[in-house]
Amino acid sequence: MTTDTKTPRWTATQTREQFLAIAWLRWRILVNGFRRKGGTGELIGRIFLYPVLAGFAIGPSILVGGGAGYFTHIQQLDHISWLLWGTFAYCTLLNIQLGQPGSTFDPTELIRFPLRVRDYISIRLCFGLLSPANVIGTLMSASIAIGIIVSAPGLWLYAIVALAIFAAANVLFSRMIFAWVDRWLATRRAREVFTGLIFAFSIAVQWANFTFNPAYSHGHASHISPQTLALGLSIVHHVQPFLTWLPPQLVASALVAASNASISLYSELTLACLLYAIVFYIVFALRTRTEFRGENLSDAANSVSKPTKKLEPRSAVATTFSTSATPARNPFGLSSPVIGILEKEFLYTRRHTGILYGLVMPIVVVLFVAFRFANHGNVTWVFPAVVAYCMLAVSNFSYNAFGLEATGIQFYFLAPVRMRDVLLAKNISSFATALIEVVLIFLVVSFAAGVPQLDVALATVLWATATLLITTLVGNRRSIVAPKKVAMGKMASKQVSQLSALISMGILSGSMVIAAIPAAIAYYIHHTWILVPFAVLYVVAAAFFYERSLRSIDRYALMHREELFTELCKAV
Fold first, then answer.
1. Bridge partner residues of 329 (DSSP)
2. Cα dihedral sign for 556, 562, 568, 572?
3. Please, which residues have CB within 8 angstroms of residue 49's CB and are 6 or more apart in sequence?
4. How far apart are the first and last CA of the chain?
5. What number of other Cβ atoms are within 10 A of residue 443's Cβ?
6. For 29-42, how does the pLDDT look when each residue is reduced to its tens digit (9 = 90+)?
7. DSSP secondary structure string, 507-541?
8. Domain spans of the chain?
9. Coil, helix or strand for 329?
10. From CA 27, how far away is CA 360, in angstroms rounded?
11. How far apart are CA 531 and CA 523, in angstroms?
């Protein structure tokens, strides 16, 4: 005897309730995050950050909107493609620099629940729709549509439809790229290659900026040889046919067709742009479907299938967590735990391409700046200026010293090692990185603009030392109470919390103000040697407070260990 039992069909009401439950969960996690320790500081950080993001959105939106209105008014709608290409490039750069919004929980955890694959794809798509770059791109597209409508009200429907499709294609392109980039960056070799490509692209952009931007030519137009101009025009002519069938040019051509009352051509071009958006969604869905089936992109998972070498014990690492009450010391006076952690920090820096990019790229910018200003006026203050600029990149890493530790942070509290030794090793690593940066800057400036004055260079190095001591003093505490887990395989993962970034900028700005007072006096009396004693006093004061802070860091870390474990032990 058989019984015909039918499985109840999944209804649209249940799907809607799932989406509402996930939205409610994200909202509650966000709100409750402000109630935990350090939540008020994060709220303050967001309050200061959002006006900055608004500036990134409002300014370009007004610019492209005004441009669209002007091109429409002079009946040159084909030039709208310039604005659309600018919108696409601007959003792409913002996506690389700002990254996608950090999820308050790991979305892959949702596969444990009764979700259909199409619902999971929709959820993953919605997770990134409100990223700053996507919102800014949508606002810029809307501004272009408004500019067209103001100048040509008869095109209102065509402009709204075409620009809405372009905005959707732009957003879906960014979601598709980020989904696949995370897959490509699952291995360290791929991360190194990808960072190399970004590095080469950044160098090209900086070279073009400092070479052809009149702002860096003191009002004089940059000289371009006829051969270079002819080569550039030839490249443009060869590339232009391929750009015709891409979304920005398709939308611009569709608007031109609409203005000429060619509705059929407008429909074809708009549908072609819509086809791009559909293809971007399909590629994104294929990647997300694989994720839904349980794919694991972590480094640990990727190393399972690889043969492992038998590691020979090394004295420094083997004795890092020695049970000896008096750990051995090397000739430099550093204990074995400090030496072992220094080795580990070196490996982290070498393997994390994002850190390497952040350290190398300022040197490249300094190279272009030094060569550009080598023959313009007094170069006495070039070295201090570029050192202050590079401190932005170096000091920022001190505010998230445990970001790469993940669950390994627990071993620091289990092993017989003092937290002050751990942070001392991390601070020494930062100091060594800063020293290398300063030496490279000195060599670059000396080669391009001449050797800096000895007293100014010495005062600058002392100022940078004092600034780093103050930065690490505050950064050690912020690394404990406001850590930020960093995933090596995630594109543009944020290095520090928002409040920590603001504190870093504030400390660096305050330190520059402190240095500006003796610099103004030295400039007024024409004796730069007085900068050195001021800088020495600054270093002594900073070292005193740093030593006092490091002495009490063990108790501070023990009191706030829950914040460390909660953030660093969660899944990404």
1. 335
2. negative
3. 498, 502
4. 51
5. 12
6. 777 766 666 666 66
7. HHHHHHHHHHHHHHHHHHHT-GGGHHHHHHHHHHH
8. 14-215+240-300, 330-568
9. strand
10. 39
11. 10
